[in-house]
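Appendix C: a fully annotated inverse folding record. The material below is reproduced so that readers can follow the format used throughout the book. The structure is listed first as tokens, followed by the designed sequence.
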């Protein structure tokens, strides 16, 4: 059904790629993050709720065929459908079916609840291709933690002494998830970096409820914030917007990497949009797949562990090894 090629995962029967690494004729895209959605393809297939983000990232003029979750379509005799991956808005797992055999590609996924995207759906399959961003046993976290409340408390403590709170978060996905988590708590607007504004608008257009926001670019030159929460990329502190913060501010980072401690940040919020070790293992088992291929970092530990559970597990480069000629077709 699929082979790993120099352009990424390729389906020779259907003649399409999944998250190709460069422009191709037909790209089935799991979600709009830049390591999955790349420019230059003639036609993109994606989940309908992710179309706005995909166009926002790749350009409004790209050719897109959006499909609702669970709505099947045919590509060269392969029945394809998207199923929620729970990673960011519109993120999808790709299910492929042909002659009674089912493959599923997880894309990036997580299983804990997130107010800003569709909940993860388990896809039963014969062969499962899983991500493994946090594929070592050291990455585990409490799925029930009230991260919105934790961020609110940190913001409030800093504000009580007039200090600003600067939370570093990726512009697509993490920023909007923090805004969704803060919606029940935030009494005033959260300041956001312009890099996130258009993406945040895409979420609102899809009906996702977020905390009220103001864009840093709307502040008058010479303005000084006091006791505010600011969300942005790490480059914020080197940008023109740093002057709005004054000298008194605290920093924090929201990421799964915080499982290793806050590093150089004042505070770490363990907020991941990827499955942790436990959920990677649980999901591979629950799909019922006899064969699992593992993508990304940490593949060694996960492959070994799944094999110890009796699953036929392989690193992704073993999928259709030697099939690179296929990409020339
Ligand atoms: Zn992603
Ligand atoms: Zn990714």
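Designed amino acids, in order:
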């Amino acid at each position: 059904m699929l082979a790993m090629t120099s352009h990424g995962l390729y389906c020779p029967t259907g003649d399409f790629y999944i998250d190709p690494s460069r422009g191709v004729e037909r790209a089935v895209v799991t979600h709009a993050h830049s390591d999955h959605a790349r420019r230059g393809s003639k036609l993109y297939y994606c989940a309908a709720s992710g179309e706005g983000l995909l166009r926002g990232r790749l350009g409004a003029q790209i050719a897109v065929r959006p499909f609702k979750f669970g709505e099947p379509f045919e590509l060269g005799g392969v029945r394809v459908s998207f199923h929620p991956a729970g990673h960011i808005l519109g993120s999808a797992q790709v299910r492929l079916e042909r002659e009674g055999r089912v493959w599923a590609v997880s894309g990036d996924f997580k299983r804990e609840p997130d107010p800003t995207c569709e909940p993860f759906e388990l896809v039963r399959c014969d062969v499962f291709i899983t991500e493994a961003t946090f594929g070592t046993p050291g990455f585990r976290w409490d799925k029930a933690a009230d991260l919105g409340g934790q961020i609110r408390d940190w913001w409030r403590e800093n504000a009580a002494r007039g200090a600003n709170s600067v939370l570093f978060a990726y512009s697509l996905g993490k920023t909007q998830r923090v805004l969704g988590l803060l919606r029940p708590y935030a009494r005033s607007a959260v300041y956001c970096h312009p890099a996130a504004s258009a993406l945040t608008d895409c979420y609102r257009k899809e009906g996702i409820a977020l905390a009220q926001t103001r864009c840093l670019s709307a502040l008058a030159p010479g303005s000084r914030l006091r006791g505010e929460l600011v969300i942005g990329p790490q480059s914020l502190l080197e940008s023109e917007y740093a002057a709005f913060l004054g000298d008194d501010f605290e920093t924090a980072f929201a990421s799964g990497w915080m499982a290793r401690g806050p590093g150089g940040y004042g505070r770490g919020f363990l907020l991941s949009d990827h499955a942790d070790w436990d959920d990677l293992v649980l999901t591979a088992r629950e799909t019922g797949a006899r064969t699992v291929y593992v993508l990304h970092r940490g593949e060694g530990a996960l492959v070994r562990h799944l094999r110890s559970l009796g699953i036929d597990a392989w690193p992704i480069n073993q999928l259709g090894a030697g099939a690179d000629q296929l990409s020339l077709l």
